[in-house]
TrEMBL record:
Pfam families: PK_Tyr_Ser-Thr (PF07714). Residues 1-37 are annotated as: Disordered. It comes from the Eukaryota. Residues 44-306 form the Protein kinase domain. One of its GO terms (molecular function) is ATP binding. This is Protein kinase domain-containing protein.
């Protein structure tokens, strides 16, 4: 399941806690200064550490009697990344996790303060749905696809890119609101040691051009990731199956030989065409998020996606997939 190796993200009140480590920096550094003037640092109280990854730490905190999430980066990113974050601060949309402030913390470990989101990460929701476990939310495949597309449209219209879109960056709240987190560009290209041979996170959602150069992060790369999410929504199975070891060995074929995750055989043709176009090897051939929103609205009542009983996952007959097709 994606959560097993996903990075904690903005607003991640719904991520599975990672084993806590003793860290001398678990308390907020002092003094803190709000780079945009939006956060009164004296009223920010760290409550607990949710998890760590290679780029930083995510904490649950209280701010003015409300829960917030605080993402502390290990190092000061390049100015381009901070510029994207400050632009994200000005974005307010029902489809994105709000950035409440960006704090400059000595010695150069910025903190991103965001709204707190309860509910499920999409990765967990899809895993529960496929295994028959109950959830207290039940958005349809098209509801999720439309909300993610609308979030991307808002992000792109705001002059931003997401840069790291995959199901653990999509939240389904207890009110069935669907929000995108961690938009504003990936931190992978901030690390000079990162290369195509080091696959961290969710590379199955990366557009082929990103494996050669992370400066190719564009709205078109976001749309490729969206296409991969469409396959997961349709089948209920992670791209190329649930075995990470098998999937990692396939990445060269994704990049060089146009290997793509499959859909159900009876998937509506319009959905197949949309998914195929989003996952095109050529960035220029991928649709814009605004066009996808219009298409999904037109097909929102498609009976093929209406709930008529428990969700049945479809295991594509990949030759490397150990589990037999259902």
């Amino acid at each position: 399941m994606g959560l097993r190796h996903s990075a904690p993200c903005w607003g991640s009140g719904v991520s599975e806690p990672i084993a806590k480590e003793k860290d001398p920096d678990t308390m907020p550094p002092s003094p803190l200064h709000a780079s945009d003037g939006s956060i009164d640092c004296t009223k920010l109280q760290i409550l607990e550490t949710l998890g760590h990854d290679s780029h930083g730490r995510t904490d649950r905190a209280m701010y003015k009697q409300k829960q917030v999430a605080v993402r502390t980066l290990n190092t000061l990113p390049r100015p381009t990344y901070l510029t994207q974050l400050r632009r994200a601060y000005s974005l307010r949309s029902p489809y994105t996790v709000a950035v409440l402030g960006i704090l400059d913390a000595s010695p150069g470990r910025p903190k991103i303060v965001t709204e707190w989101v309860d509910g499920y990460q999409l990765s967990r929701f899809l895993s529960y749905r496929s295994s028959g476990r109950r959830t207290n939310v039940n958005p349809s495949t098209l509801d999720i696809a439309l909300a993610v597309a609308m979030g991307l449209d808002m992000i792109h219209e705001h002059g931003l890119i997401h840069g790291n879109l995959h199901p653990s960056k999509v939240f389904i709240t207890s009110n069935e609101e669907i929000k995108l987190s961690d938009y504003g560009g990936s931190l992978h290209h901030e690390d000079p040691t990162f290369s195509r041979m080091f696959y961290e996170g969710e590379p199955y959602y990366w557009a082929p051009e990103l494996f050669d150069d992370f400066s190719n992060e564009t709205p078109e790369a976001d749309m490729y990731a969206f296409g991969v999410i469409l396959t997961y929504l349709d089948t209920g199975v992670p791209p190329f199956g649930p075995d990470d070891r098998c999937r990692n060995s396939l990445l060269p074929d994704v990049v060089d030989n146009d290997l793509r995750p499959a859909l159900r055989p009876n998937c509506p043709q319009w959905y197949k065409d949309l998914t195929h176009d989003c996952m095109s090897k050529e960035p220029a051939h991928r649709p814009k998020a605004s066009d996808v929103v219009e298409l999904l609205i037109r097909h929102n009542g498609d009976s093929a996606f209406m709930d008529d009983g428990p969700f049945q996952p479809y295991y594509p007959p990949y030759p490397w997939l150990r589990k037999s097709s259902k």
